[in-house]
Structures are given as C-alpha cells and as structure tokens.
Write a structure and sequence with these properties.
Layout lengths: L1 E8 L7 E10 L2 E7 L10 E2 L4 E4 L1 E6 L37 H8 L2 E6 L7 E9 L5 H4 E10 L2 H8 L8 H24 L12 H10 L4 E6 L2 H14 L3 E5 L14 E4 L18 H7 L3 E4 L11 H7 L7 H6 L3 H6 L17 E4 L12 E4 L2 E2 L2
Parallel strand pairs: 1-4, 1-5, 6-7, 9-10, 10-11, 11-12, 12-13
Antiparallel strand pairs: 1-2, 2-3, 5-14, 7-8, 8-9, 14-15, 15-16
Helix pairs in contact: 4-5, 4-6
C-alpha cells in the first residue's frame, strides 16, 4: 500500500517535512518514504489530498487497561498496595485490551502507550510499551521499558492508613535503597555462581525482577512531583548507576537549570491542584524544561486524563511557550526515544512499524481528530 500526496511530518532526527510526499507500506512496515507521486499507483493506494501525515502518537505514562471503564474496585488492578515493595509485579498480567479506552486511543491517533503500575508503592513493578490494537496483551507488547518507583505523597498517604512503613519521604527512599542494595548483592551472587566454588543464591523473584534495571536494559520511572522528590530520584539513580525518567516532574520548572540532560514525562497537563505537591503546577513547565536541555514528553496519565486528550495536552503546552513542532515531538519521537522504542515507532522512516495518523487540520487543535489511523499497516479508523 502507498499513501501519497501528503504533507509528511517525518519526526526524524533531521526534522524533515515532506510536501507532496508518499509512504510505501508492506507487511506492516514502512519500506520507503519520498517526495512526489510514485509510479504504479493502484486502486488500493490512498491519495491523502494534501493532508498532514504523522507517526502515531505515543503516550509514555498511562495506566491503560489496568483500571477498567465503568466499574469500581473490581476493575482496578494498578495498585498492589498490600505491601510497599513489589518489583515482581508484571503489568501485562492485568492489562485488559478489551476495555473501551483502547478504541478511544486508536480513534485519537494514539497507537502506542506505556502501561505502568500505580504510584502507591515505592517500587511497584515493571513498565511495558504496547500497541493500542489487539485482543491479547502479550501480542501487543513492543517491549519492557522500565521499573516503576514512586516518591512523595502517594506512598506516604497510602501506608499511613495501614500503619506500615513508609510514612515519611525518608522511609520511602530507605526502602528503595535497601531493596536495590539487596538486588546488587543478588546480582553479584548470580555472576559468581558460574564459578564451581560458589553456589547460586536462593531464588528471589523480587530481586530477580530488578536485574534488568541494574544492567541498564530498562530505565527507572520515578513518580515525582515536588522539586525535592525530583532530586531524590536523581540521587538514588546516581547511587545505583541506573537511568532515571522523571514522571510528572511538576516542579521541574523551578529547578530546570539543575536538570539538563535529564528525561521527563510531563503531565497530566489538564489538571487541577488536587493535592499539595501540585501547588506549583504550570503550563510553562514543558517549555522551561526543554529550554534547559531536558528531553520532554507529554503524557495523559490515563485514566487521570482520558487517553484521547493526549494531542490536546500537547497543544496546551504551547500556551506555556512551547513551539508547535516541539509540541508534536513531545507525543511522537521524544517519548519513543525516552522509552527505548524509537527503533520501532515515533517517526516515519524506512524499517519502522507503519503506525500513522492523518489529519486535515492541526493535530493539536481542540476541534481536530484523525481522518485515518493505521497500526502495523492496518487501517483502524
């Protein structure tokens, strides 16, 4: 299939925009991108009639499928707060792809999301990137991308009512530090076990689950709003040589000069000051962070903000000073790069998955919705 006569925002490293361009697709992959009308156009090929063609949108922080729509506690599966440290939790075991929000995501052009456990636990479980098309979560997974950590109010307030540690920021961090230290020692014991002089350690599923993080295969996704919590995330990351992603980063604009070269997922943008650590929420956050060298993605934190408002959220950052192209980057190539899935999605380039969306107006406008959405080369809207 060939999509032609479009204004293609490739969102590649060269920031290339191709007027009157085409994209050729075969077996779910992009096999060529170019300018002009290709030869041998067939009836199955699509004339975009000058419309805007973008890569499918990527939301790098959601709880998609973990909190089912229209139900109460029986459909909530994103916070295992029976104990504070649960790195062994795998979100794929709780994702419900048949929840209506996946259809709403597709209809809004959101083709890939990261699904994360909730933020009540200091260490909550793994984070996976999945496509928004499918019936079986296993087949939707792009790859595992992170381990979820939480700092600040959420763990404090959750375990305060249970009369269990942690009830302070000190205790939250101490639990994280203790667990990562144990995981490091477990990792060393496993490596030594290749020598006949050493025995393998007794299997520990919690510590085993943290090895990909310690080996740099995935990143540490830190829920952190307040400036001091952001610094704690960076402190822990430095101590254990892990790569942090600052999720929410609400007060990042207050310390932006200290965060250059960091990675942040900002949002939810459409939000009120619902708790004390959101006191300094600002629409200027994304812009100020980017101006100070931070790699910035925008998220909905679905279901805090419904997934279909991802592009609107990115558009609202323009009120705070973000330019239009950077706003588009924050929901395409940048989250894909932060998530370690840019080899698959986030731009329109040869060899990548054919995840695409077509707009007749500005993708960031409140009145705009995709004319067409494609995932893995299949038209889904």
């Amino acid at each position: 299939m060939i999509l032609y006569n479009g204004e293609i925002y490739t969102m590649n490293s060269a920031k290339e925009i191709i007027s009157g361009g085409y994209v050729e697709i075969n077996e779910g992959k992009i096999i060529s991108v170019g300018q002009g009308k290709p030869k041998n156009i067939s009836q199955e090929d699509i004339d975009l009639e000058g419309k805007i063609l973008l890569p499918g949108f990527v939301d790098l922080h959601t709880h998609m499928g973990l909190m089912n729509s229209g139900v109460g506690i029986e459909g909530e599966d994103f916070n295992e707060d029976s104990e504070p440290v649960t790195p062994q939790m795998r979100v794929v075991d709780a994702i419900n792809p048949c929840d209506i929000t996946f259809e709403e995501a597709r209809n809004a052009g959101v083709t890939t999301v990261a699904v994360s456990p909730g933020s009540t636990n200091p260490i909550a479980g793994n984070v996976v990137a999945i496509k928004t098309l499918g019936r079986c979560a296993d087949k939707m997974v792009v790859r595992e991308i992170g381990m979820k950590f939480a700092l600040g109010e959420n763990p404090k307030m959750t375990f305060l009512t249970k009369e269990e540690t942690p009830i302070t920021r000190m205790a939250t961090t101490a639990l994280i530090r203790e667990t990562l230290t144990k995981a490091q020692k477990y990792q060393i014991q496993l490596m030594r076990a290749s020598d006949p002089e050493y025995d393998e350690p007794e299997y520990d599923i919690k510590l085993e689950s943290l090895i990909p993080l310690l080996e740099g295969e995935v990143k540490a996704h830190f829920h952190c709003h307040r400036a001091d919590d952001i610094f704690t995330a960076l402190r822990i990351s430095k101590e254990f040589n892990i790569t942090p992603v600052l999720v929410h980063c609400t007060e990042g604009h207050m310390i932006a000069d200290e965060l250059s070269n960091c990675e942040a997922i900002v949002g939810p943008i459409i939000s009120d000051r619902s708790k004390p650590e959101l006191t300094n929420v600002s629409l200027e956050n994304a812009h100020i962070l980017k101006e100070n060298g931070v790699k910035v993605a925008v998220c909905t934190d679905h279901s805090e903000v419904p997934i279909q408002y991802l592009s609107l959220s990115a558009g609202l950052t323009m009120r705070g000073g973000t330019d239009r192209y950077s706003a588009l980057e924050s929901i395409t190539c940048v989250p894909a790069k932060i998530g370690g899935i840019y080899d698959k999605v986030g731009s329109i380039e040869k060899g990548k998955d054919a995840d695409l969306c077509v707009f007749s107006g500005s993708p960031l406008d409140v009145l705009s919705e995709p004319n067409m959405v494609m995932i893995n080369g299949k038209i889904v809207k």
